[in-house]
Structures are given as structure tokens and as C-alpha cells.
Amino acid sequence: MTSAVSRDGWTVRIDAAKVPPMAARDLLDLSLAELEEWCEQHGQPRYRAAQIATWVFRNGVRDAGAMANVPRPLRDEIGGELRIGSATLDHVSRSHDGTRKLLFRLADGATIESVLIPDGARLTLCVSTQVGCGMGCGFCATATLGFTRHLSRGEIVDQYLQARALVAADNADERRPGGGATRGVADADGDGDGDGVDGGDVETGGDATAERITNLVFMGMGEPLHNYDGTVGAIETLTSPWGAGVSPRRITVSTVGLVPEMQRLLAETHVHLAVSLTAVDQDLRRELMPVSRKYSVAELLAACRALPLPRRKRITFEYVMLAGVNDSPAHARALCRALAGIRCKVNLIPFNPFPGSPYGRSDDVTVARFQDVVRRAGIHATVRESRGPDIAAACGQLVAEHRAGTADAAAEGQGA
Ligand code: SAH
Description:
By secondary structure, the protein is α/β, with parallel strands linked by helices. Helix content is 32%, strand content 20%. Helix 1 (32-41) crosses helix 2 and helix 11 runs parallel beside helix 12 (364-376).
């Protein structure tokens, strides 16, 4: 169906086929309780919900037809009423250092990115929580997009499921003679092609050399605590025994410092908290991170000091190092004074420049000197290595083109 709108003598045709159809309910958006309710509404015992959830979240199945222990009529009803995942893996960029950037297209055409970062025995998945971001940090590429919308619980969970399937597919590739990181996205998209098993933990469990995702960080596009419900819902699915079964100790949520939501997060989940501090001088932080107008440095740090941290748990403070702005030994000393009495560690992130950014990256000597000052004050301090620079996958560089139709071009331009 086509409707025509006349504007200034021009006729603009709106092709109804290009408007996304009314989205079916996504099974990935449901909690176990909601899935149980759905089963009951369909005349089925509640325990079916756990069976279905195991297929989807443990085994990575995206086709109800493959749920062998679920009665056929129920499989058909699931297939007819619920979709299982709505994100399509559009493109995978591979860095020389093993970092992989995954570009997803969502049902409404928006695009987001996730990043897989290998580091020794670890493989960390960095997920996005919003399309764009509204926090406006002056040193972040995602901020230049502005805020479009929150991701749903299922859209966050789906990034994990599809990344896990990609890792399993890469493992299978490695095992094949002459295999390597040569897979095209057509093989890697895990988009429910009907084969029923995507692999994941089930497939790779017995192979000591196989890679598997060991850590999950909410540090991609968006502010996780602005999308509180989506983030905490996704954490529930990811960490529950009925869900993906990831230990919350292996999950870190990073925030600009939305104080009430930080307090809620620690009360309602067992994940780690990282706070992006970057400056302790209120005037400077206001300039770099507009959120400081709402929650001042003093208020933020007072809240951190009062957080009910379980024993042995520490808050991570991230500190983006901007040349000549916040990277002097005096800034380091001020940071140490500000953090006194907070059980914490500091993660220094040398600024990753992006086109049009007004800041420069602190050089290695400056970073090392800063780190030294912090360490001498008795605070654990690490420097985050920049990963996947050849595919623009590093911290704060994620700028997936979120207008429909241009994502491919954007991704191609950044390919490894
Ligand atoms: N909104 C959340 C999570 C996303 S950003 C937050 O701000 O914490 C993840 C981390 O990358 C944050 O610590 C952020 O300060 C940092 N970051 C943003 N832009 C960056 C850049 N260009 N270079 C280095 N780090 C950056």
C-alpha cells in the first residue's frame, strides 16, 4: 500500500511495506514468570516454561520446531505467536588482535554494536543498552548520536546469545583443517535458520582450547542505568539458572553515575559496579560530563562511600585520560584524596580519539606517571589497553549508524 503526501508541490510516496510490521512479542523479552503465564494461558503446565527457556537461553535455539521435549502443538503456538530474538547480525569486523565488533540491525532498522575482546584466558563481551546515548559526555563518540531509544531486555540478551553463537562458530572453524577467522557473516548470523542448535556452552564445553565468553560488561553504546528496567531485566535472564546461567560476579555495569539507580542496582543484583568518574573537580566534570549538573562529584562520591558493598567487592572508577585536561600528577593526587575511604580500584583509559573529537590522548609516560601516583596512595590502578583500534572497537568509539539503510556502508568503511 502506498500513500502520497504532497509537500511544496513535490509528492512524497510513503511505501507502507517499509514501515516495520507490528512486532510480535519477543520471547527474549520475557521473564520466567511471564513465560509460565503464557504457558498457562495456552493450557500448558507451568514447567514447560523452564523447558522452553533452556532451549532458548542455554542451547541458543531460535526455532521452536527444534524444542524436542516440548509437545508439537505448543511448539507451533510458540512459532505462531512469539518470535525468538529480533536482532540480525549484520556485520562482523575482525581486528588483528582477535577483537570482534558485531553490528546488529534491530527490528525497527536501528543499529547497535557489541564487542568481543580476548585477553589471555578471558573473553569479554561488551554490550550496548541504548540506541545512541543521552548523557552527552564530551569525549564519547556515541554521545554525538544523541539518544534514540532504550534497548529492550531481549535486545540486550540477544547480543549475548548471538555473540556466544559466533564464538562457537569461530571455534568450529578453527578446528576445521585450514580453518581460521574467515567466516562471512552469512554463516555467523545465528538468525534462526532452522538447524536448531547454535552451539554455545553445550557445544564447546568439552574442548579445552575452545574460546568461550567469560565476562560481560555493560560498556557499549548507551547508559545502562538510564535504561534501568532493560538492563536489570537482561541481567536477570543472563544470570538465572533458567536463563543463560552467567555468574553475576562476571558481569560489570558501567555508569556515568546515576546515583539512585546505582543504589538500586546494588540492592537488586550481585553484579559489579563501575563508575565513569574522569574528573573530581566539579567544574571540570560538569564540563566533560553534563550528568554532573544533576549529581555533583561530592554527591556521587558520598553515595559511593555509602553503598552497601559486600565484603571483598570494590567499585571500579574509570578515568578517561585526556591530554592536558585531567592527566597531571596534581589531578592524580586530587583523585586519590577524593577516593579516600572508598573501597575501590581505578581503571585509567587513555582517550580513544574519533573524528571530530576535541580531545587528545594522554601519552604513555603521562599515563604511567598518573598510575604511579595513584598506586603510591595505596589504590589499585590499572591502565586499559586499547583493543581493536583497526576496527574502531575501543572504548567510547562505538557509533553504529542508527538510521536505517546506511549501516552497511558505515560498517564496511571500518572493516578490518
Ligand atoms: N554510559 C556508560 C557505559 C558506556 S561508556 C558509562 O559512561 O560508563 C564505557 C566507558 O568508556 C566509560 O568509562 C566512558 O567514560 C569511556 N569512554 C567514553 N568515550 C571514550 C573515549 N573516546 N575514549 C576512551 N574512553 C571512553
